[in-house]
Amino acid sequence: DIFADTLCNPVFPEDELDREKTLVIAGITEEDDDIFDRAANAMRRLLFSGSPYSMRPSGEVESIMNISRNAIEEYYKSRLSAANMVVSVCGDIDPETVFQKVRLKFGGLADAPRPERAEKFAFTGKGGSESINMEKDQSSVLVGFETVNNRDPDRYALEIMSSVMSGTSGRLYHSLRDEKSLAYTLGCVSKQMNDTGYFAIYVATTADRIDEARAAIYDQIDLVRSKPVTPEEIELARRELTLGLKADMQLNQFMSYASALDELQGVGYNDVYRYADSIAVVSAEQVMAAAKKYL
Question: Residue 203 — φ and ψ, nearest 5°?
Fold first, then answer.
């Protein structure tokens, strides 16, 4: 009842907004003091310049401070409507009972049309590099590439590639940490969004070994572009990805979040159930083709 009333009849008290602004600004300050967050924000600016994807998700201090109660209220009216809403409920439930309760509790939401959005943003980012000086004992090297959106079938090959290169059994760990002792921590991220995505490789090292770490990253990129991953690597990657998802799917919280987000983004609420089958058919040739195309 409290949640439904808050969602359907918000009042946006000024003192609560000020308190939330303080918390968000504190989070931004923490981000700016973290070598990985600073690098990731810089990567998005370079890759996705000219689109909202280039922006820091939590905003900038100046923009947060300047948000007014009226602006928040107008945004609420334009976005929080029944046509723009997904309710996801997971667990041992009776669907019809849930439908009745949802209609009862959220019937107060305005029935405004779903807001229009651009089919695809025009990205003006041209890549490049950026160096950020921070007074830290460690340094980070991050190499990122624009890839595909969350509906592109290439995303599965990219996820296999990320798994092959990441983790304690991955290529990056073996080469940069075991053989060269270059990294405190390292890994890959393959992220897909509505209009685009990125593939990023990150390494934490010392300031005097930044160039060596960067060169080692590009050596691994050249390797995955020029030679197919082995059957053993691709099988291990499939197993790690599918077992990780199966573990997550045991949690109602994960299932509610994943199905709601996928439905909102147009992938479909049941996309999570298709993941394992999609990963299982990715071939070594597809992984190498994706590496050549995007990295």
Answer: -140, 135
